[in-house]
């Protein structure tokens, strides 16, 4: 589990194509400290598994499903990426609960700079809009953020100077894709309520049938 608090701005140093998958070599001195084979590291919000590693780099395989669901397929040598290690048990939850399982991609529509922050408008896939609410949490390229405005087809976020300077969100421009992970709690609530409604409907049908 992650919290959406980016630890380091890393760099893709090599991309090896492996048919329907690929292998990234990523530079990141902070996240590789104490890393080992099989560990998890979030890259732009996607939980990847460490294959090989060195003092300031690691490699990770990205399968076809991940390439389809996320924007990782657009990365190339030299691309900057947000990096985060899993949160330790008992550590502070600085952002919100983030799984590193991207739900889909959005597209930056425009940026509105202000004196001390910047408002970014992001197109939202229709299938995800019901999970996004004003003042709720959302993960954008691995960064835990608060939704400012939530509409049917887009949402806005407000970025402080630290986020602009220390994550890829300070570099993204209109038209660029971003990885989105909605709040897992919303998805669980929806599933539980859906199952409850189904159970209630089945109970009503059975009762009606018995009464005939």
From TrEMBL:
Reactions the enzyme catalyzes: 2 6,7-dimethyl-8-(1-D-ribityl)lumazine + H(+) = 5-amino-6-(D-ribitylamino)uracil + riboflavin
EC number from the UniProt entry: 2.5.1.9
Record bears the keyword Iron: no
PROSITE patterns the record matches: LUMAZINE_BIND
Segments forming domain Lumazine-binding: 1-96, 97-193
Gene Ontology MF annotations: riboflavin synthase activity
Its job: Catalyzes the dismutation of two molecules of 6,7-dimethyl-8-ribityllumazine, resulting in the formation of riboflavin and 5-amino-6-(D-ribitylamino)uracil.
Protein name as annotated: Riboflavin synthase
């Amino acid at each position: 589990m992650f919290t959406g608090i980016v630890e380091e701005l890393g760099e893709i140093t090599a991309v090896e194509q492996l048919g329907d998958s690929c292998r990234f070599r990523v530079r990141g001195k902070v996240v590789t400290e104490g890393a080992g084979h099989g560990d998890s590291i979030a890259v732009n919000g996607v939980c990847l598994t460490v294959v090989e590693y060195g003092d300031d780099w690691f490699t990770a395989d990205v399968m076809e499903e991940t390439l389809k669901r996320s924007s990782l397929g657009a990365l190339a040598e030299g691309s900057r990426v947000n990096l985060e290690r899993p949160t330790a048990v008992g550590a502070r939850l600085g952002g919100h609960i983030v799984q590193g399982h991207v739900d889909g991609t959005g597209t930056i529509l425009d940026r509105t700079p202000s004196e001390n922050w910047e408002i970014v408008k992001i197109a939202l896939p229709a299938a995800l809009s019901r999970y996004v609410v004003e003042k709720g949490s959302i993960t954008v390229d691995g960064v835990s953020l608060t939704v400012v405005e939530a509409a049917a087809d887009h949402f806005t976020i407000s970025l402080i100077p630290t986020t602009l300077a220390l994550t890829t969100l300070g570099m993204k421009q209109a038209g660029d894709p971003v990885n989105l992970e909605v709040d897992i709690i919303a998805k669980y609530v929806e599933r539980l309520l859906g199952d409850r409604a189904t159970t209630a409907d089945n109970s009503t049908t059975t009762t009606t049938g018995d009464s005939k």
